[in-house]
Design goal:
Oligomer: single chain
Distance between the termini: 29 Å
Helix content: 10-25%
Number of strands: 38
Structural class: mainly beta
CATH topology of one domain: Immunoglobulin-like
Number of helices: 6
Bound molecules: CU-O-CU linkage, copper (II) ion
Largest sheet: 7 strands, mixed
CATH class of one domain: Mainly Beta
């Protein structure tokens, strides 16, 4: 009962029904009912004490090297941390669990000295970052125990809440659920909109994870934990001293989808998605985030009041059976916001945030190429991850539409490295407001077609691929990932290309 997987349930269902045909239907119904009830949803609403103050990950310190680059030091190390069930062995960056917040601005050249002090090979990937494939920190940039890796690149994209996490081949869920994750905030001095922005005061990083422990370790096989932590703490409260507080929400959980709302149904004003500010604020009562997605929201508080951020019944875009077995009926108390008796003034919520931001993804009337991505089982387009293979070859400078559809009858998402994309349409319709800005990860609802627009503006490298994959980490680890290579016009990738591959058949 530790793993709730719709597939196994469905196969039991099918078998039981098959056996049942012929007169034992009552028994069948009883068995199904028992299974259904045994997998009851997790619910912590009202049971969380909120007796620990929220900890805010420190901003990473940096130095400047002789080339003028901003240098961060990041060490993956072993530690111990209380995940809410007593202290267990965890992993963290520069600490016991999670990592410091890196922060840099557009135009800045950064270098990260990443040191692996673990006893296992790992990597560190800059999720949402536009950068050369060799700096991306995916499964091709292994860092062995005791080794240091020094990726360097220039920040060149709009202000955004990004994050970093390991991406070792087949081991991402293991390393992330042990605690290796942190935020990477990008600023853009050219974007001048006034928002709460004092880190740790009225601008709070909110990293949501759901780890489970087992025999003094993180249970890294567990797909859905039964308690939710914010920045490593279960049920924290945050003291708020300003009228508006900005929450930078990051779903750092391997498999769980959240749907955040306030306990009294009051509005959340969403101001940003994965790749930066929305064109304009979106007032809503709930914000859904699948693993790896981010959203920034503003919450307005009255002096002295208390509100609880919850996650309730996330809509997974699936049938009711899949919903139940993938956390779609789960409810959690996540974070309490406690307003002081005197609140400092906050800037008004701007009417416009970043009206032209989607132009970053390219012009919809100048598309060079359209590709299709079918998500099913643990494969994309019927193929699984092959390290030495270029599934897609992209020409530098091209604007493309990637058409993504989940045909598998299961929960999946889609994440693309290197670019931020614009959602052009969802089943032929205008995207909803929460998908009106730049994204790098989307939840792919069952049978729905998403048309994603993106432009590959820089960094051709025929030898090094970028990844695209389902960001449900156990799916990713089981091969639900492909590789694309960006090449100069007329160039060939130095990896086996897909035409050659199709001729030889697939091991999908
Ligand atoms: Cu968040 Cu390929 O990663
Ligand atoms: Cu990524
Ligand atoms: Cu998936």
């Amino acid at each position: 009962m530790s793993r709730r997987r719709s597939r196994s349930f469905l196969s039991i269902f099918v078998r039981v029904v098959a056996v049942g045909v012929g007169g034992v239907n009552l028994l069948v119904a009883g068995l199904l009912g028992a299974v259904w009830l045994a997998f009851s949803p997790t619910d912590t609403v009202g049971d969380v004490a909120f007796d620990a103050e929220l900890t805010v990950p420190p901003l990473a310190e940096s130095t400047t090297d002789e080339q003028g680059r901003t240098v961060f030091d990041l060490t993956a190390q072993q530690g111990s941390h209380d995940l809410g069930e007593g202290t267990v062995e965890t992993w963290g960056f520069n600490g016991d669990y999670l990592g410091p917040t890196l922060r840099a601005e557009r135009g800045e050249e950064v270098l990260v000295r990443f040191h692996n002090e673990l006893s296992e090979t790992t990597t560190v990937h800059w999720h949402g970052m536009h950068l050369p494939a060799a700096m991306d920190g995916g499964p091709h940039q292994d860092v062995d125990p005791g080794e240091t890796w020094e990726p360097t690149w220039t920040i060149d994209q709009p202000a955004a809440t990004l994050w970093y996490h390991p991406h070792p081949h087949g081991e991402t869920q293991d390393h992330v659920s042990r605690g290796l994750a942190g935020m990477f905030i990008l600023d853009d001095p050219a974007q001048s909109v006034e928002l709460p922005s004092e880190y740790g005061v009225d601008d709070l990083p909110i990293i949501v994870t759901d780890p489970t422990s087992k025999r003094g370790q993180v249970d890294t096989d567990k797909e859905f934990g039964e308690r939710v932590l914010v920045n490593g703490i279960e049920g924290p409260y945050a003291e708020v001293r300003t009228e508006l507080v900005r929450l930078r929400l990051l779903n750092g959980s391997p498999m769980r989808v959240y749907e955040f709302s306030l306990d009294d149904g009051s509005p959340l004003v969403q101001i940003a998605s994965d790749g930066g500010l929305l064109p304009e604020p979106h007032e809503t009562t709930s914000v859904r985030l699948s693993p790896g997605e981010r959203a920034e929201v503003l919450v307005r508080l009255e002096p002295g009041e208390t509100r609880v951020l919850r996650s309730v019944d996330p809509d997974l875009g699936q049938n009711f059976i899949n919903e139940r077995f993938n956390g779609g009926e789960d409810r959690f108390d996540v974070l309490q916001l406690r307003a002081a008796d005197q609140l400092a003034d906050s800037p008004d919520v701007p009417e416009e945030l970043a009206p032209g931001i989607v132009e970053h993804a390219g012009a919809p009337d100048a598309v060079d190429r359209t590709r299709e991505f079918r998500l099913s089982g643990r494969s994309i387009n019927g193929a699984q991850m092959r390290m030495e293979h270029a599934d897609e070859v992209v020409t530098l400078g091209d604007t493309e539409v990637w058409e993504v559809v989940n045909t598998g009858g299961e929960v999946h998402s889609f994440h693309v490295h290197d670019v931020q994309f614009r959602v052009l349409s969802v089943d032929g319709r205008e995207p909803p407001p929460e998908l009106s800005g730049l994204k790098d990860t989307i939840l792919a609802e069952d049978g729905v077609t998403y048309r994603l627009l993106m432009t590959f503006t820089d960094y051709a490298d025929p030898t090094m691929p970028y990844m695209y994959h389902c960001h449900l980490l156990s799916h990713e680890d089981r091969g639900m990932m492909g590789q694309f290579v960006v090449v100069e016009e007329g160039d060939e990738p130095a990896l086996a290309n897909h035409a050659e591959h199709r001729a030889h058949g697939s091991h999908g």
